[in-house]
Write a structure and sequence with these properties.
single chain; 2 domains; disordered C terminus
Length: 576
């Protein structure tokens, strides 16, 4: 009776420990289930948020926008190339006009010098007098000198006026070409700024599209891993019912044992022997339950951590997409959108500078045209040389031959210079045509509809990017918060598990008590239990077989050898 009382007391202690074990398991799995619901909500939110981030970027950094940027880059590059070509052509044309005017100026100076020489020769002619046998011719002498002087003076005044206009225009040309060079240089610089911005934008768009193409499969892979981890947690959370049923099965059998031990049955002695086999089985069952519990807890915790890791990886993907937009902090603009918006400024300056150059060309053309128009000398002045030569060669004047020769030489020089000036003015007209052509080209290129549509195109692209940036910023803030919340949830899930503090220790106490009962009933040392029976029972026990063994021991109608091979097959272990 003493042995029965001792065994009953031990079973009572075991029963209280099992209650603690069941409570611990319930709290652990209930807590993990609650944390799982929270983690599931946060992780799916992060996943959906990330997909939205990728969608926003994909809808903003579109292939159409990239195509438009590339077209703008091509147009600006072509404009820069043409600007350089225009600059060279304009400067060349103006320099050629200047060279023509410089040659005209040289011939004009020669004419002025020859007119002065001619004036001296005529004065000498008046002083030496004109020998004539005719009184009438003598009387005409004064009129002849007066006429000659009038023509010389008229030519002299015309040349001085021409020289004044010539020098003024040459000065304007020199100043104009400097202004053209400066404006074209500035225009080249402005279009260069626009090209750099567009080129940088193209690189960012290309990188963004490449990043999207690379990260979308990674995001899909991470989402698949996230679903797998969630499914694994759901599966392992179901182990609670299985483990609870196994432990409750032990608890129920103990109650049956205690009820039978409390009766005064004649066959109690034989029943005690059967109890020894039963506690052996129960020890193996609890060992197995402990291992399953441990594995379930560890897998749940591991999957929690994996969910946290995947969520962080998804967050990093989104941060990396954002990082490209916010790289290169040394740039004057905070984002590519602002840069694109401000691209209209250098483009506008470029067009304005070309318009100034065009105005300069129009001014130059007008001034040169005026020179061409006023350069034509009236018929009398133009025929001055011929008239003079004809008059001085009249035989009746009987001029000295050397004087006639000198007047003739000087007059021929004047006629030659004027002919050359006439030829130069013809060349000047062709240069005016060149300047007009360049002016028309600049005007056509700067007023085309393509230039007018550029601000709208840039504004649309920039607007999409700014909207993208705002949306992504909001989404990332939400994602950061969700990620932080998820980290706290996982931390709580890990810290709230009491398995190592309660479950495992209590299980070991129960197993120790069962081993003690087994030793008391069988006379075997407790150390023999591990060697003789425990490993055997671990291999043997399944949900189906443990019920059979329990019934066999309680009813005393069968032994372990009656188990079928199917019951002993490890592959038939049931977890659900």
């Amino acid at each position: 009776m003493k042995k029965i009382k001792e065994i009953s007391e031990q079973f009572a202690v075991i029963d209280s420990l099992i209650v603690e074990i069941l409570n611990c398991a319930a709290e652990d799995f209930l807590g993990l289930n609650e944390r799982f619901k929270e983690a599931y909500s946060k992780s799916t939110s992060i996943s959906a948020n990330a997909e939205e981030v990728f969608t926003v970027y994909a809808s903003s950094y579109t292939s159409e926008s990239l195509l438009n940027l590339r077209l703008l880059f091509k147009k600006f590059s072509q404009a820069k190339k043409e600007t350089n070509k225009y600059a060279d052509s304009i400067v060349k044309s103006i320099d050629e006009v200047y060279d023509i005017l410089d040659s005209i100026d040289l011939h004009s100076k020669n004419i002025n010098q020859n007119l002065l020489t001619l004036k001296f020769l005529l004065a000498n002619l008046k002083i030496t007098g004109i020998e004539s046998q005719s009184v009438e011719l003598t009387e005409e002498k004064d009129e002849l000198f007066i006429e000659f002087n009038r023509l010389v003076n008229k030519s002299k005044l015309a040349e001085l006026e021409l020289a004044k206009s010539l020098h003024g225009n040459m000065k304007l040309l020199r100043e104009g070409v400097d202004r053209v060079k400066k404006n074209m240089r500035n225009a080249n610089q402005q279009i260069g700024i626009a090209i750099d911005i567009i080129n940088e934008s193209i690189q960012i768009f290309s990188e963004k599209q490449q990043d999207l193409s690379l990260n979308i499969p990674k995001l899909q892979e991470n989402n698949a891993k996230l679903r797998d981890s969630i499914d694994s947690i759901i599966t392992n959370l179901q182990y609670h019912d299985i483990i609870r049923q196994k432990i409750e099965h032990v608890q129920v059998s103990h109650k049956e044992i205690l009820n039978n031990l409390s009766s005064e049955d004649e066959e109690q002695k034989n029943y005690l022997n059967q109890i020894g086999e039963l506690v052996n089985i129960q020890s193996a069952l609890l060992v197995r339950a402990n291992k399953e519990y441990q594995r379930a807890i560890e897998q749940i915790i591991d999957k929690f951590k994996i969910i946290g890791s995947i969520a962080q990886s998804i967050l990093n993907q989104c941060k990396d997409l954002k990082r490209i937009q916010e790289s290169d902090l040394e740039q004057p603009f905070t984002s590519v959108a602002h840069k694109l918006t401000n691209t209209t400024l250098p483009v506008s300056k470029f067009l304005s500078l070309l318009a100034r150059v065009n105005n300069l060309l129009q001014s130059i053309k007008h001034n040169v045209n005026l020179m061409v128009e006023t350069s034509a000398i009236d018929d009398e002045a133009n025929r001055f040389g011929e008239l003079l030569l004809k008059r001085i060669k009249q035989p009746e004047l009987m001029l000295q031959s050397n004087l006639i020769q000198q007047i003739e030489t000087v007059t021929f020089d004047i006629i030659t210079s004027r002919n050359q000036i006439g030829t130069l003015y013809m060349h000047l007209e062709s240069k005016i045509t060149d300047i007009e052509r360049l002016s028309e080209l600049i005007s056509e290129n700067t007023k085309s509809q393509e230039w007018e549509s550029i601000p709208t195109t840039l504004k649309e692209i920039a607007s999409n990017l700014l909207e993208c940036d705002d949306k992504v910023s909001v989404l990332l803030r939400e994602k950061f918060q969700a990620s932080n919340d998820l980290g706290e949830i996982i931390h709580r899930a890990v810290n709230q598990v009491k398995y190592y503090e309660v479950f495992e220790l209590k299980i070991l106490e129960v197993i120790k008590l069962l081993n003690h009962i087994y030793s008391t009933l069988t006379g075997k040392e407790e150390s023999q239990f591990d060697k003789d029976d425990l490993e055997f029972m671990r291999r043997l026990y399944t949900m189906e077989s443990e019920h059979k063994i329990h019934n066999m021991v309680i009813k005393g109608n069968a032994g372990f050898d009656d188990l079928s091979e199917t019951d002993q097959d490890e592959s038939n272990i049931e977890f659900f």
